[in-house]
Design brief:
Elements lengths: L1 H40 L10 H26 L2 H45 L8 H13 L14 H6 L31 H43 L14
Helix pairs in contact: 1-2, 1-6, 2-3, 2-6, 3-6
Amino acid sequence: MGQCGITSSKTVLVFLNLIFWAAAGILCYIGAYVFITYDDYDHFFEDVYTLIPAVIIIAVGTLLFLIGLIGCCATIRESSCGLATFAAILLLVFVTECVVVVLGYIYRAKVEDEVNHSIQKVYNEYNGTNTDAPSRAIDYVQRQLHCCGIHNYSDWRNTRWFKESKNNSVPVSCCQPSISNCTGTLTRPADLYQEGCEALVVKKLKEIMMYVIWAALTFASIQMLGMLCACVVLCRRSHDPAYELLVTTNSYA
């Protein structure tokens, strides 16, 4: 019965190491996705420290490649030193991912205040040209999130661009794609997106942070199982004289 348990633990460990390699790719992808998306919304969110969880996620993903390699070699060779190193690194990564979860929740709670603080400034800097970064950011957000203005399209009346253009219209990025020949004129408000961008930007940024949090929680759970299996193998190897290797060799670690 005990030998069955040790064999099962070793088998699970080998399988988990393969999962770690897949997890490494997924975590790096999620971290890169956060960076790319943040670049699209960075004008609405001035606190660069919000990217800390994404940086940690990418670092953890890179480390998981090495963990998978160490784990596979240590499990197949049944190396006590290798398994101890494997378990210690897993513990370190587990603690790191717990930190990511905490930071994710902290910065997720700050999203709304950050956007509320900066969005009015961004809209006031709009000048309608593609060479201007704030203008590109606003046009991108309005098209992608199907919104117009801060709370609704009427907010454009208070912007410097609207007052200087004097054509009683909003940017064409406010136009619904189903409406042909839309010029953004306020005389035809039904042609425009009705929802404001502030709430949607906040929602989008919070969703991105939740991706990071759930990824960290999921892989932290897998790593906990990995640590448990490694400890089972180590303990049985140390105390059971009848311990059998997963792969029979002529030398022992």
